[in-house]
Design brief:
The chain has about 140 residues and is mainly alpha-helical. The chain is built from 5 helices and no strands. Helix content is about 70%, strand content about 0%. It is flat and about 50 Å long.
Length: about 140
């Protein structure tokens, strides 16, 4: 039953995502088809997968233990906070915090999670911003 609940919620989210993706417009044309097809295609594929999940024969599943559900809830909350604070905090700091919390969720020690968060935040920003030429926000503190 849990897979059908998930598929139903995911189907509703995909329909909402299609409405949002349809409204994407660009002031200038940098690609022949524009920015809309990629998000529409990805969300469309997710919608098809959720329909397939709804229509398949359900397996007998047991809900995970309470501790696992709590970790999943913390993961969802930290990802929402990452999306909310991405521009304000900037990519390096937001990514460092996200990586640190995920490391702690997987039972890393605080120093290991902190060091890996800082290193990943800086290295990923450098890789995207300098090497791949993808502009990422530095945040309100560094601008």
């Amino acid at each position: 039953m849990s897979d059908r609940i998930f598929a139903g919620i995911w189907l509703l989210l995909c329909v909402g995502g299609l409405f949002i993706a349809w409204q994407i417009h660009s002031e200038y044309s940098y690609e022949p088809v524009g920015p809309r097809p990629f998000p529409m295609g990805i969300v469309g594929l997710m919608l098809l997968c959720s329909v397939a999940l709804l229509l398949r024969h359900p397996d007998t599943l047991e809900w995970p233990p309470r501790r696992t559900l709590q970790r999943l809830l913390v993961m969802v909350i930290i990802l929402l906070m990452y999306a909310w604070g991405f521009e304000w905090l900037g990519f390096p700091i937001a990514t460092a915090i996200l990586t640190m919390v995920i490391g702690l969720l997987f039972n890393a020690s605080l120093p290991a999670a902190g060091i890996s968060g800082v290193v990943l935040g800086i290295l990923l920003w450098y890789a995207f911003d300098r090497l791949l030429d993808v502009t990422l926000p530095l945040g309100a503190w560094f601008n």
